[in-house]
């Protein structure tokens, strides 16, 4: 009897404990997936680690952790986690896809193919499996298999432009330029807004057809579609250089440096161009900039030496010549140049010695017919070319110093298959998606924007920061940034500290507000909302609590909707759409929720209503707080109440005439409503104020 009672008690305790653990791990899993959705990969891994520690027999946390690791390019870690996931549940199809991508990036192409074949057993129509399998077969040089896989992919998905883009690279691998161009043309026919396709077609025309004008036209089109892509400017600069358009080439390198001040290739090439047009001091600046980051770049050193020589700074020139000749002891031209510099400082003996050395090397070169000044680490094919080769460019891997005066091009501009960069299935969506600018939130961090200033003034926020009650300066931003490992640890510790303060004085709203910020930053939205509820109960005039509660609740709605729409078969759980989709007047335009008007569930309608009530309260307390109008308009867009959204965007622009985000979103709403010209006007203004993607949309609307 006692044994039965004792056994029943034990079972009761175990069942209660199990339920509690289940609730906790489910909650932690949900927060981890939340962090993964918002691309906070490091943080998401921390949460999945917690679940794995408590329940190591579950497959899902290993899968999601693998996705996060894949996004961070930890391919080995992603592969290992997929192994553990599949051991526990071999029917999670996404695990084969993630492991295949990881293996492909690690160079295990056969292992990747095996995974894709396994996935295709469960999802035979999946285009990601088919496409990646074909690419892996190319990488293994199984060309017949690859051709068959591409044919199957295109047969099953004839409108899938990426299939044609990938196959075009395959044809180039087989030296069939005509078929490569035909596939590139087909991809552009299917979607004429693919900047990458135009850029690739331009390089094919440039390298294989020597059709410079047509190549230039394609590169111009690529830049109209994606005006911030530095590689396009670099490539257009090369095309223009071959067309003897030095001014245009210079403009392109200037633009690259404007977008990316530390782009060494642009600085190096601009230095060469400045040498050609006689801007010697400016050229020295460019080469010196390169040498600050690459002190052993002997091409930059040699060109700078020539410039010093031309400007009469012979000792500086000789110092640079010395470095080059120590590394290239058979560089005859270098000895000639140094001999002249030494003579000019009256070092006659040194000059004579260098001259004789140069003559001896030159005579040897004439006998062998092989260009001298090679570097043992250079490209063999390139090294066999002579200095008289009339090519105008040099690859990064080519270390033949005789080519010091040629423009530098990246090795990967050569049209060979660069499939590692094309492997599909990454969390990041490379295709351009037209979305409204996101809502604002109070946070301690934001992403840096090189094009437009992130400084956003708010009288209310300035007053709050002046009180010093917060541990850090609070910002108003819609450019949130993922936390680093140190920041994650800092905010987890901060949660504990504020919890202790709340125990001491549970009636003080400030620790609740601060803890709510910490919870938001570690993607625990439910706990953040609970604390903000408490703040509002304790202080009903705390405007910041209402604003952040609305913003966090809206984030939670977005995540919940993405989770409902997600499926494992196509990895949409790892790369969900924003949750906003609707009839699209433009390819890729995202406006409103996935539900048709009037079809939203009562629960979802209530969620939106709570968000709107909070923004109403903020506006009641602070009628000039422009970000409340903007955020409320975004909620209206999600509800498909576009006319109400326009009213709020109008008010935001009235209060802040330089509000780029409001012009951008209002422009998209006008386009969605069919008032295209008004939309273009607003998008033009947004572009003027720094939202560069506006021009891409205007281009699409104009076609």
TrEMBL record:
Sorted UniProt keywords: Repeat, Signal, TPR repeat
Compositionally biased intervals (Acidic residues): 379-388
Pfam families xref list: TPR_1, TPR_11, TPR_16, TPR_8
TPR repeat residues: 93-126, 230-263, 264-297, 298-331, 626-659
Organism superkingdom: Bacteria
InterPro entries reported in the protein's UniProt record: TPR-like_helical_dom_sf, TPR_rpt, Ycf3
Gene3D superfamilies attached to this UniProt entry: Tetratricopeptide repeat domain (1.25.40.10)
Coiled coil residues, start to end: none
Region (Disordered): 369-397
Signal peptide coordinates: 1-21
Protein name (record): Tetratricopeptide repeat protein
Species assigned in the record: Coprobacter secundus subsp. similis
């Amino acid at each position: 009897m006692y044994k039965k009672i004792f056994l029943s008690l034990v079972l009761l305790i175990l069942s209660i404990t199990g339920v509690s653990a289940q609730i906790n791990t489910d909650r932690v899993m949900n927060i981890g997936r939340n962090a993964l959705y918002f691309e906070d990969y490091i943080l998401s891994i921390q949460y999945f680690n917690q679940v794995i520690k408590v329940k190591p027999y579950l497959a899902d946390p290993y899968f999601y952790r693998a996705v996060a690791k894949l996004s961070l390019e930890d391919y080995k870690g992603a592969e290992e986690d997929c192994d553990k996931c599949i051991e526990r549940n071999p029917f999670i199809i996404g695990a084969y896809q993630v492991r295949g991508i990881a293996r492909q990036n690690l160079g295990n192409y056969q292992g990747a193919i095996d995974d894709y074949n396994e996935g295709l057993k469960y999802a035979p129509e999946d285009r990601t499996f088919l496409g990646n399998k074909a690419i892996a077969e190319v990488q293994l040089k199984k060309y017949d298999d690859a051709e068959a896989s591409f044919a199957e992919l295109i047969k099953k998905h004839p409108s899938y432009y990426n299939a044609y883009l990938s196959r075009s690279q395959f044809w180039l691998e087989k030296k069939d330029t005509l078929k490569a161009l035909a596939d590139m043309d087909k991809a552009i026919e299917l979607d004429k807004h693919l900047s990458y396709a135009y850029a690739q077609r331009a390089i094919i025309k440039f390298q294989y057809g020597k059709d410079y004008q047509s190549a230039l036209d394609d590169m111009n089109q690529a830049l109209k579609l994606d005006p911030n892509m530095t590689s396009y400017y670099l490539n257009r600069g090369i095309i223009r250089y071959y067309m003897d358009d030095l001014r245009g080439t210079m403009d392109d390198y200037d633009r690259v440096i404007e977008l990316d001040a530390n782009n060494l290739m642009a600085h190096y090439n601009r230095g060469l161009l400045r040498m050609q047009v006689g801007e010697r001091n400016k050229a020295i600046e460019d080469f010196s900039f390169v040498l600050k980051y690459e002190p052993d770049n002997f091409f930059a050193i040699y060109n700078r030496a020539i410039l010093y020589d031309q400007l009469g700074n012979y000792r500086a020139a000789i110092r640079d010549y010395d470095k080059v000749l120590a590394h290239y002891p058979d560089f005859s031209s270098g000895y000639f140049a140094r001999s002249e510099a030494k003579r000019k400082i009256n070092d006659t003996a040194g000059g004579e010695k260098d001259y004789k050395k140069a003559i001896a090397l030159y005579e040897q070169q004439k006998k062998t017919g092989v260009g001298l000044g090679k570097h043992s680490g250079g490209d063999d094919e390139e090294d066999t070319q002579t200095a008289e080769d009339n090519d105008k460019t040099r690859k990064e891997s080519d270390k033949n110093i005789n080519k010091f005066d040629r423009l530098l091009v990246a090795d990967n501009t050569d049209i060979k298959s660069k499939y590692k960069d094309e492997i599909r299935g990454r969390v990041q969506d490379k295709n351009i998606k037209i979305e409204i600018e996101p809502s604002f939130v109070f946070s301690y961090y934001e992403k840096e924007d090189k094009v437009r200033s992130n400084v956003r003034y708010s009288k209310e926020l300035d007053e709050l920061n002046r009180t010093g009650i917060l541990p850090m300066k609070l910002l108003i931003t819609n450019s949130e940034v993922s936390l680093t490992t140190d920041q994650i640890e800092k905010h987890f510790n901060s949660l504990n500290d504020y919890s202790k303060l709340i125990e001491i004085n549970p009636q003080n709203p400030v620790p609740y507000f601060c803890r709510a910020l910490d919870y938001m930053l570690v993607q625990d939205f439910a706990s953040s909302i609970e604390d903000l509820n408490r703040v509002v109960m304790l202080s009903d005039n705390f405007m910041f609590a209402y604003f952040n509660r609305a913003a966090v609740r809206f984030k939670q709605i977005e995540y919940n909707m993405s989770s409902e729409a997600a499926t494992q078969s196509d990895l949409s759980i790892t790369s969900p759409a924003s949750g906003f989709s609707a009839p699209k007047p433009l390819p890729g335009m995202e406006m409103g929720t996935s539900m048709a008007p009037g079809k939203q569930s009562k629960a979802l309608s209530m969620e939106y209503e709570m968000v709107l009530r909070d923004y109403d309260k903020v506006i009641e307390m602070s009628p000039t707080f422009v970000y409340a109008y903007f955020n409320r308009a975004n909620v209206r867009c999600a509800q498909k109440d576009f006319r109400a959204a326009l009213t709020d965007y109008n008010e935001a622009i009235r209060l802040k005439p330089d509000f780029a985000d409001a012009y951008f979103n209002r422009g998209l709403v006008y386009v969605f409503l069919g008032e295209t010209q008004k939309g273009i006007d607003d998008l033009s203004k947004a572009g003027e104020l720094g939202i560069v993607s506006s021009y891409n949309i205007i281009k699409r609307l104009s076609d």
